Amino acid sequence: MGRGVVFHKTKSLGLVRLCALTVCLxxxxxxxxSEEGNAGAATxxxxxxxNAASAINGETIxxxxxxxxxxxxxxxxxxxxxxxxQINLDTVDELGLAxxxxxxxxxxxxSTPIVVDGVMFNSGAWSVVWAHNAKTGELLWEFxxxxxxxxxxxxxxxxxxxxxxxxxxxxxVGTIDGRLIALxxxxxxxxxxxNTLLPDRPYTITGAPRxxxxxxxxxxxxxxxxxxxxxxxxxxxxxxxxxxxxxxxxNPADGFESDAMREAAKTWIGGEWWKVGGxxxxxxxxxxxxxxxxxxxxxxxxxxxxxxxxxxxxxxxLYLSSIVALNPDTGEYVWHYQTTxxxxxxxxxxxxxxxxxxxxxxxxxxxxxxxxxxxxxxxxDRTNGDFISAEAYVPMNWATHVDAETGRPVxxxxxxxxxxxxxxxxxxxGGHNWHPMTYHPETGLVYIPALDLRFDxxxxxxxxxxxxxxxxxxxxxxxxxxxxxxxxIDNLQSIRGFLAAWDPVSQKEIWRVEHxxxxxxxxxxxxxxxxxxxxADGQFAAYRADNGELVWESPVxxxxxxxxxxxxxxxxxYISVVAGWGGxxxxxxxxxxxxxxxxxxxxxxxxxxxxxxxxxxxxxTYLNVPExxxxxxxxxQRAEGELLFARYCAVCHGPxxxxxxxxxxxxxxxxxxxxxxxxxxxxxxxxxxxxxKFDHAIDAKGAQAVRxxxxxxxxxxxxLCESDxxxxxxxxxxxxxxxxxxxxxxxxxx
Length: 750
What we know:
There is one protein chain. A hairpin with a 5-residue loop joins strand 8 and strand 9. It is globular and about 70 Å long. By secondary structure, the protein is an alpha+beta fold. Residues 1-16 and 19-54 have low confidence and may be disordered. Helix content is 13%, strand content 30%. The strands form 13 sheets. Strands 1-9-8-7-6 form a 5-stranded antiparallel β-sheet, with no helix packed on it. Strands 4-36-37-38-39 form a 5-stranded mixed β-sheet, with no helix packed on it. Strands 5-42-41-40 form a 4-stranded antiparallel β-sheet, with no helix packed on it.
């Protein structure tokens, strides 16, 4: 089957201003998931005037248009605040489900909806794009870029996509296999499709494009696989490359693309980093200031993570883990600020950046704010990158503080793992990951979906670049759970997450809401005095913006990691969120899911005052870890399997083989899987489902060693689950001992 669009309407879709057409949007009930639930008829028609029609462009995004959500952060400043206030502290208890739509996938969903004049555009796993009637949920069209499922091997953190961009009648999406595609907004038909990747390197795209001055800007992911980071701008009409900015220098022998790269190379000392790419991928956050004409990009970690291998002579390794300001017309470097010089912990600065004008010490300041992975909340002058302030927003031990004079973190010996292993906070998932923050201009607070997680780092003394696999330079087997019950309980108890309200002026936490678990959703603030967040425990909630009081929540039967949006159609305010748990934590943590986070099919969920739609009933069955398959193996064989599993398998199947995400939990593998084990691992029997073959690194003997490790781990898990510890710690161990299987009746949508 070729790449293409699936049409769900024979009539042309009118997108009002987006397509600059005089149209009549007819709101139809579709797929049993309408505004009024599973029944209904055509609703009233809204007509747009040709005189009112205008293309989505920089001016409309700057203005914001309260009834729409035109860019990933709603406006160029990325504040993710909606001024709509129909849903407020007095009315929020009337909030109910208006419509839902099932996505047909159990992979992670991270997109922010784009809403234009009653039409919603979303992206999902494998970079599929959907257009819906934003009032009724009717599916208007669907586009599947037909990504080769084997490309999943290069996606460190699930086959996710964080959203699309809209501009002058087109929808733009980056794909997991590194393409950038322009679609006709009215039909979903592809207009152009280009490859953004450098040759012979395993890049991905998971971030949402940003559009500035008729240029669509996109970065790439893949540092763990040994790539060189860059950001590229393409012409919105033709797809022609306008400029490219590399985030780290290449081989000095080849010369430098710019003065910025020449200066950056001076900060890489010793080693041959370019052979492993260097890293610095700009895989998520951007912001734009039209007044200053500055485009801000956040850059990622080094390749490999470990600076003692990557740059053994030291140096800051620019522009890793930095906020970099560029001229959007040319892509030329203007200024930078590095949050983690010489990063060796995967402390990316790709996290959400917010622009705001605030008063500090009696002076109005144009600031850019970020809570990157390293655990410090930064306030910088966005005109020139000057440091203003930084304080820790999560517990940490890798650094003591940020020096007020230099703006550099003061590292602690507790974070240095050059000679021995160290337990460090935050871990590589950070104090805050990709999940968007929000800034409320009335409270003056930034709201952070925070993580409180630790990690055991150790030097990989046998490091060798592996082009198709992870290149961390750390000994990943240190993260494999031990069989010691006390340590297991301690690890499970250490997993925390919370919602923090942060004052960027005083650099203090104002209030906090502790969550039952970690890896909760991004945020939305509104003019109604509310902060909305979906949680990993399968609840969608609203909190008071001033004090954090929980004022409303609704069970949605699936964990939420994406950020909500708000928009209005025909005078009615809506809150919408894409629900589908997955991503980096789900794949790589190996920690059990919270009891409320059952792995069900992802959904688009849209709420309004008086909404009466009902989700279908979900039946949950719990399965115990089955009796392991019979296999004779030696201790040496098991140990070999543990090393191979840590090196090649844990990134998707989780440390200890007990993944909590959408990837199969190997502890539950039956006879059918074990019978073709070698065919899967070495022969690629399940490559069409996203399980690549590893014949470049694992032979049949190694595959059986991995099998021995999985079987032995299953035996240990059963022994733990039959011990008194499970009685003592049921909340912690029940999810580890049982797999939840969800069966949903009466599914609507796909």
